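sanity check this record:

:::
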Amino acid sequence: MPNFNKVFLMGNLTKDPELRYTAGGAPVANLRMAINRVYQSQSGEKKEDVCFVTVVVWRKQAESAGEYLKKGDPLFVEGRLQSRTWETDDKQKRTIMEVVAERIQFLNRGKGGASSEGFQEHVEEEGGSPAPASGSEEDIPF
């Protein structure tokens, strides 16, 4: 049976990017995003649900995110789900599900920040064209 692991997210950063470097010198950043979903209940009441997601970004994308993004900025992410398991110092098993970004696009154009065309980067191995921005600022949560 074929498998498919692809994620598309659009939301806002809940805090500034956490940029660090691996022992080998590779830049990596953790981005914490909130993605809002507004829907109507069966009774007609307007409801809102928020999903918080950690996005891991590598190489040039990580450095660009660390330099140009800040808490509250809107962001479009294309990537894949990844599950990691580790053991804490007190032998507790921990598992986390996160998104590994293949491509990010900054959506803060027009707010005095970086434009998405100027700083959107994608993994060189993937090639291809940048992901298009969709919708308007009114469609973005927060």
Q: What stands out?
A: The chain is about 10% helix and 50% strand.
